[in-house]
Each structure stands twice: as C-alpha cells, then as structure tokens.
User: What shape does this take?
Amino acid sequence: MAGLGLLFDTYVQNTFVVLTPLIAKQFHFTPASIGFLTSLFLIGYAIGSFLSGFAADYFGRKNALTFSVAGYTVIGALTALSNGFATFALFRGLTGLAASTEAPVGAISVIEASPDDRRGFSAGAWAAFYSAGYLLALAVTALVVHRLGWRWPFAMVIVVGLLVFWIRKRLSETPKYSAVLSILKHHRREKTPLHQLFTKSYLRRWISFCILWIGNGFTFYAFLTFMPLYLTTVRHYPFSQVLLIMAVAQLFYAGIPWLIGHWSDRVGRRPAGIVSAILAIAGTWVMVSLPNGIPFLIALWITYGLYDGTWVIGWAFAPESFPTEIRGTALGSTLLVGRLVSFIGPIVVGLLSSHMSIGSAYKIISLTWLIAILGLLIAREVGSGSTVEELIASSPDQIAAASSAGD
Assistant: This one.
C-alpha cells in the first residue's frame, strides 16, 4: 500500500514535468521560469516533509498517509485550472506541501515492516513504484493530451486519489510503531523527547542526513526536471519520442536503485551509496558528451537509474538511525534542511541554461553528488536499526516480544 501511494504521488508530481514542453510553449515559460516553479514545489515539499514526519510520530503512520493523499488529490486536480505563471506557482507550491508525506512516511512504514537484513531490498522495491507513477504520467499524457489537451492529465487525479484514500482508511498501523507505543504505555514511559535529536547520541547522525539530502536533492531535481526539455530543445527529439525515451528510462530507474539497495544489505549503506554517487557523476558527463544515438540513450537510461541510488540508501539508512517513536520527526527534519537548501538546484540549472546549454549545466550540477558523499562519510552504520533496546534495556522478554511483532 505504501508503494501504491508512492505511485500516485509520483504521478501527481511528475505530470507537470512530463508536460513541461507543452506548458512552456503555450505560456512562453523560459528554463528559468520552469526552474523557479520546480523550486516552489520543493519548498512546499521541504516544509511538508517535516510536518508529515512529526504527524507520523504523534498521530500514526496510517493517519498521516491517509489524509495526505486527500490533500494532494484535490490540489493536483486544481492544477488543471492554471492560466499562467501565478496560478502554476500557487498550485506547484501547494502540491509539494501536500504530496510530501508519501516519501518519508512511506519509507518509514516499509522499513518498520521489513526484516533487519532486507531493509535495503525493501526500500529499493518500494522506490520502484516511483517509476510506475512516472510511467503512468507518461501513458496518460500520450493517450489523452493530443485529444483533450494538457489539462486533463491533472484533472484525472481525482478518480485514483479517492480510491487510494478509501483503501488507506481501512489499513492498520505498522507493527513496529504499534509495538513500541504498547511498550511505552505498559511501562508508563514517555516518548523519547525531540530535543534528543540534538544531543551527542544522535546529532552526528542528524547532521549527516541533512548533508546527504542536500546533495541528493540538489542534483536529482535539477537533472530530472529538465530532462524532457533537454531532449526536445537540445537533442531535438520529437515530443512523442521523448515520451518513449522517458518510459524506458523508468525501467532503469526502478531496477538500478533496487539492485543498489539490495547490495547495501550485504556491503553496508555507506559504501553502496558512495559508489552510486560516483557512478552518477561519471554517467552524467558521459551522457552529455555523446552524440544522439543508441550509446547516448543507453548512457542516459543508466544515469537516470543511478540518480535514485543514494535516495534508496537514504530511505533505508535514515530510519534505521533513530528511535522508532521519533523516527518520523528525525527523517522529516533532516529532509526539511536538505530540501530547503537543495531547492535552488532547478533554479541554478535554469539560470545556467540562459548562458550555456542544459547539457553543460548538467555537468556542473552533477558535481554536487560530492555533497551526498560527504554526508555518507560522516554517517555511522547502526547495524540492524533496532531501537527497542534503547527503550527498555532491562527487560529482555519485552524486547523479544516487540522485536518479533515489529520485524
């Protein structure tokens, strides 16, 4: 169910990205304008990440995810009414705010329901639904736009959104979260206070993930936002071919991060993430340097997949690093910091594209993967990620029961 939510969330997010060439043409948007609109989305996404993480800790994972889908369904549909830069800016910002819950809370839900030695595998499998959502946006665009216009892919979100909302209302809470709350209540203990995130026990971890998300977000959103525009204006592919190229890219985007997540279960989160980031830099430079043709497309598809590698590592690594009862707030607050800094990535590419090609801007922006590598170098591996021991170290029977219920 977390994957289905991510699929729909991705559709809502990326319908705008897929339609960028058509919207830019009708409203005479420049690359700088597109970059600014994307950055407004990311600002909303950053603020919403923190609020949703906090809500997940205090109101439950299920409730946070359920009411989020209602919000971004309505706002995504309203985007169909946009009639210029101001209305697109409003709805992109609000879409980011409402859609921000799926990634942090969905990742936490998946990690809390996964065996300790398969969390990277599970994170990769969950993240693959992002590709399915992007493919859905491409398919709807290909089938609908030439007959009904670009507004209908936005309007159609209302149908699927209501279905996801109805299903989620009938789901139960994650076992790990329920087990920890039960143990706290049984022992009459308070939750770990939020200020513990900034003590010696957790501060280094908190800072490391802030840095990781800065590097991830800065490069990731800059790269993906401009890809359809890059293929149409720089590479001169027809829009119909761009849709096909992006569809194939999603297959790599699903498969490569899943392999990286699975590999991280064996070799550790840090080495897998660092290798992924280095390969993403190299792939970007190779892709931009190649002429149109099959080698270029293969390089693009592989690089596209690598751009999600460190995200998958982060989705497994960050939840493992904090106690269950403040895990949402920890992840949400690090995402807030990371995304509030990295939102300028699309703006930078848009501005650079005014003085050079988008491809040259890609080369420069890819180097910010080094920031993600720094975050991974600072982070510490925390083993299984079990946090029940931190709550009741003196009660082995309760620990075993909670671990069994959660894992």
Q: What stands out?
A: The chain has one domain: 2-406.
